[in-house]
Amino acid sequence: MEKNIKEVVKEKYGLIALQSKSQNESSCCGSTGYCSGVDYTIFSEKYDQVKGYNPDADLGLGCGIPTEFARIRQGDTVIDLGSGAGNDCFVARALVGETGQVIGIDMTQPMIDKARKNAEKLNFNNVRFLLGDIEEMPIPENTADVVISNCVLNLVPDKQKAFGEIFRVLKPGGHLSVSDVVLKGELPKKIQEAAEMYAGCVSGAIQLNQYLEITEHTGFVNLKIHKEKAVTVPDEILLNYLNEVELELFKKSGAGIFSITAYAEKPDQA
Questions:
Q1: 47 Cβ contact list (under 8 Å, min separation 6)
Q2: Tell me: the pLDDT tens digits for 118-130?
Q3: Are 50 and 35 in contact (CB under 8 A)?
Q4: Which SS3 state, helix, strand or coil, does residue 231 take?
Q5: Lowest mean pLDDT among 7-11, 146-150, 164-168, 172-176
Q6: I need a surface site. Which of 2, 152, 153, 205 has the fewest CB within 10 A?
Q7: Closest by CA position to 30, among listed 47, 18, 48
C-alpha cells in the first residue's frame, strides 16, 4: 500500500512539474486528465510580496509559507522537504544569504530537473537539489539548522519515520517549520481511500492531535502551531467521491480539513 501511494504521488507530481502555475490553477493536470478534478491549488497562499520569491518556481502547490515562522538566519543551512520547482528554497536562500546553504529534496525527477534549471537561471551556487525520499534522506545527520516543508509531509505514508529523519538531519538546537494539511474529525471513508486525493493533499492528512503526538514522540520540544486555517474544498471536487446525501452529512458532521504551520525544536543535547 505504501509503495502504491508513493507511486501515485510520484506520477501526479511528475506531470505537474511539466506545467505552469496557471495550468495547475485551471486544472491540476491540465490536458492530461489524470487527476479526476482534484485542484492542487485550493490550499496555496500568495507569495508575491515575499522576499526571494521567483514566479518560475511557484507551481501553486503549497498550503502555507513555512519560511514565515522559520527563524532562518544568515549563514544557516536549510533543508526543504518536497522542494518541487524550488519556490521555498529560493525564499530561504534570500534569508540565509551568500554564506548559507539551501538543500532541496524531492522524490520526483522532473521536479528536480525544473528546480535545477531555475537555480541555474538565478545563478545561485549555494542552492542544490537532491533526488531522494523523505523517509530515507540522502543527508548526513546533524546537517541542518532549519528544516522546512510545504504541504508534503501529509503525502508521506510513514510519518513517524519521516519525522525521525527530520530529527536525525537537524543539528542539536535546530528546528523545523512546516506547513501541512491535517484533519479534525473523520473524513468519509470514500475520500480516505481515493488514491488521487493523496496527491491532492487531503486523504494523506492525519488528525491534528495525532500529528502533534508524532512530532513530540520523535523527541521534538517547544512545539507551536503558528497558523491554522480551515480549508474549504469545493463541492464539485467532493462530489467526485460522495453523492449529495453523503456530502450533506459530511458538512453537518463538523469534520474538517485545516492547513497549519507548525514549529518545533530538536533539543540542544539530542
A1: 53, 58, 65, 87, 91
A2: 999 999 999 999 9
A3: no
A4: strand
A5: 7-11
A6: 2
A7: 18
Question: What is the secondary structure of 35-87 as a DSSP string?
Answer: STT--GGGG----TTSTT--GGG--S--SS-GGGGS---TT-EEEEET-TTSH
Sign of CA pseudo-dihedral 188, 194, 199, 204: positive
Gyration radius (Cα) of the chain, Å: 18
Q: How many CA atoms lie within 13 A of 104 on its CB side?
A: 31
Q: What is the pLDDT of residues 46-61, one digit of tens each?
A: 888 899 999 889 888 7
Set of cell numbers at residue 167? 530529527
Half-sphere exposure of 203 (CA within 13 A, CB side): 19
Q: Is the dihedral of CA 168, 149, 88, 16 positive or negative?
A: positive
Closest-CA residue to 203 (of 257, 245, 261): 257
Contacts of 48 (CB under 8 A, 6+ apart): none
Question: Does 3.40.50.150 match the CATH number of domain 2-265?
Answer: yes
Q: How far is the C-alpha of 103 from the C-alpha of 112, rounded, in Å?
A: 11
Q: How far apart are CA 240 and CA 242, in angstroms?
A: 6
Question: If you average pLDDT over every residue of the chain, what do you get?
Answer: 84
The pTM assigned to this predicted structure is: 0.83
Instruction: Judge whether 147 and 176 are in contact, CB under 8 Å.
Output: yes
Quote the CA–CA distance of 23 and 183 in Å, as a whole number: 28
Residue for cell digits 525527477?
109
Beta carbons within 8 Å of 213's beta carbon, 6+ residues apart: none
| Distance between CA atoms of residues 86 and 105, nearest Å | 10
